[in-house]
Amino acid sequence: MLEELIKIDQDIFLYLNGLGTPAWDGFWMYLSRTLSLVTIPIYVFLLYYTYRSFGVKKTIYILIAVAALLLTTEQLSIIVKNSVARLRPCHDDEINLLMRNVKNHCGGKFGYFSAHAANSSALAVFFSLLFYKKNKLFLFALAAWTLLVSYSRIYLGVHYPLDIITGLTVGITLSCLYIFLLKKLPVFKSSHLI
């Protein structure tokens, strides 16, 4: 059963990775960067909108929660990668000659699960839940950004789809947990958090 799942994961990866063309490589490489002219404005806008919605004191608590959330997703990803020890596609001799390795740099040896997918989904869901009652557009805009970042990892040849799906699941789950914990703080008792 597990071998069959891994084979399906590899086949889907090869299909999605193979859709790429050199004309789009730069776009997907740039989109995959943690800090870029795409992501920095998103982060600045989220900070500004949080401040405008909650004021300084609550914004500080929210920033601490976001930092703890990202630290948790990142560290959990490292622990799981080293425990599961599933090779990244670009390090997997079984398929690395069949795929497009856009970056020509594969990153760490192991890839299960994607920290990019976990971190971007954690941020997206956290802020979507934070502002859902005020602005439902957050949900769609941040979900689109998360999906693009996640797909970029397959496009670049550094993660399998299952790495991405697990990363998304971890990010979503942890962001829900952190929003739940944030709501329990006395400073947010009267706020309109979900």
From TrEMBL:
Pfam families: PAP2. The keyword Cytoplasm does not apply. Keywords: Membrane, Transmembrane, Transmembrane helix. PANTHER family: AT30094P, SPHINGOSINE-1-PHOSPHATE PHOSPHOHYDROLASE. SUPFAM superfamilies: Acid phosphatase/Vanadium-dependent haloperoxidase. Residues 62-179 form the Phosphatidic acid phosphatase type 2/haloperoxidase domain. This is Phosphoesterase PA-phosphatase related protein.
